[in-house]
Amino acid sequence: MSETTLTGRESEESRPATMRRVVAASFIGNFVEWFDYAVYGYLAATIALVFFPESSPTAGLLATFGVFAISFIIRPVGGVFWGHFGDKVGRRTALSLSILIMSASTFVIALLPGYEQIGLAAPALLLVVRLVQGFSAAGEYAGAASFLFEYAPKNRRGIHTSVVPASTATGLLLGSVMVTALTAMLSDAQMTSWGWRLPFLLAAPLGLIGRYIRAKLEDTPEFRALEQEETEARTPLKETFLHNKRAVIVGLGVACLNAVGFYTLLTYMPTYLSSELHLDETASFLSTTVALCGYIGSVFLMGRLSDRFGRPAMLAAAGIVFALLSVPLFLLLGTAGLVGITLLQFGLGVMLTMNDGTLPSYLAELFPTRVRYSGFAFSFNLANALFGGTAPFVATFLIHSSGSTIAPAWYLAAAGLVAALSIGLARGGARQSRPDR
Length: 437
Known about the structure:
With 437 residues, the chain is mainly alpha-helical. It has a single domain, classed as Growth Hormone, Chain: A (Up-down Bundle), CATH 1.20.1250.20. It is built from 22 helices and no strands. The longest helix has 31 residues, at 245-275.
């Protein structure tokens, strides 16, 4: 037996070491994925100049966010594929393949010619690459969360799966730091010419590191036990929609707050602060960086609290808080200085971790082992396709159609209300994982 194999005979002393490898393997893929999304979102104005130079600033920004949103349309399809693959073949195999596709497509963005070189083919190629990214990324969040959930001790599944949202925020943090540094050191002309390409080049080495770590692990104990117990061929996709429809609906509703909140508060916000509130661009990135630090620091606490007080209570509280406080906090954003804006962003980030630190373990508990990857991936990715990838576009559209800079806050409040109501629909919250698989 290899040192990375986790079996029932493995000693308790070696289990922490295995968990550290599992955490690292789960962390890296989401980190790469959201690093890319962060860079794309934070450099939206620059990317608009490169790929949509003949449009007005607003139209170019909408087009750039439109490409961002369209790339999410394929995520439910990717969720179905990777979920079925992960439930049928194994979590580790699915995660190892998806990270290679995702990191390669991210790297390709750095090599794309702009509109000045090949005309309309440039934004068309950008869209194609983003679609490939969306397809591969659809398996990451659900797969990593399922992987951690099935390895973790039952009384600490909340804090262990909170590594997944922490990894996404760390990817955003590195993206924010890099973009802040680039915008501070390079001129606008240099950024438009070649500076914007530099962050995307990091995807290749990071992806190879993630693939190496994942290849050194066995699949989860729960999945291996399921394989040994079952003699009949499994049909995860069919079983998900035939026997777990209610769980899929609940998962979709609960995940919508994560989708809207994450992409509005942690991806779109620098653009919002600079374009709508006219904050200096470097200051906008700095403020968002501080908010991300608060998010990363508090998401583990929320995951631990979910182990103690229960997932439904935490998620319901998060939905109610957003429904009540989003609009007042955005009103304050419009009147505060840099310190005030930074503190408000920090507070919004901590609010979001009430949902995000709890969501991975909640969604994993909604579905039995045999369809966990499929149910989690489809509901989570459908929410992100409908509400997450479109969030920057919707926020920009709502502001310019209503003339109100607080329009995104109403969108956040609505998402919080839907999430809270979905917990009620679950009739007492998430099912606990059961020994009957």
